[in-house]
Fold:
Amino acid sequence: MAWLRGGKAHCANPPNPPPGAPWRLVLLGAPGVGKGTQADLLCSRLGACHLSTGDILRAAACTDCERTPALEAALASMKAGALVSDETILELVGERGRCLRCCGGFVLDGFPRTVAQAEALSRFLEREGVALDVVFSYELPIEEIVSRLAGRRVCPKCKAVYHTVMQPPTRPGICDACGTALLQREDDKPETIRTRMRVYEESTLPLLAWYAERGLLIQVPAFGTPEQIYVRTWTCGRTAPDAFRPKSPRGAAPAVGGGAHALSARRP
Ligand code: AMP
Structure:
């Protein structure tokens, strides 16, 4: 929310990270692959801040703050399943540059989405004197993703996410956590899903090569439950040819019951 209120706003939920160096991660993957769920798991276990440009734009759409023409245009692009302009997104992220050097670290979800955004991110990070540890790319066949998106339902109040078949709420259409009526995201409608997939392939897939060239990319098959994918994230990290080596240890975790320190054993 501090992001929405502008560059000078104070963060209402400062992180409470475990001791050690912060993790600075980027999550890539097609819409609906489960990046948001993984971002939540990673953040809660690493004590990092979840920065999602999509969440910020959705929150902006729901607030009654005055809408600038740039915000109106951004929300229209979003509704159509197209990308918001690099200029608008970079202004949004650039305003909160200091979040990038937050002592809790960060998990970027949905940003960057184009090579131009990745180049800008690397300039922002340089300006703040920090660097990325790793970029996880979550991967699934496109048909699987389309079925996940079409069945996704979200709670507009507490943001809980359900799936009509794979993870239905106890009472159809009602959030288990807070009793609010669930919604289908505007951009999860079938015709918009097709546009988002095309946009992903054209604009975001080239980022994989961009980060691979820089030795930061780890590819993670995204099938299974969120917990299985979370564990696989760290397994892939350890076994990849360019296994990531953050500068100094913080207990990170394939934390199935293991707490947030299990991964430190693999550190150099
Ligand atoms: P997400 O929740 O990350 O899937 O984002 C939802 C929508 O917000 C996308 O389909 C885009 O319209 C817009 N959006 C979010 N992040 C970006 C970004 N980094 N660049 C361009 N558009 C974005």
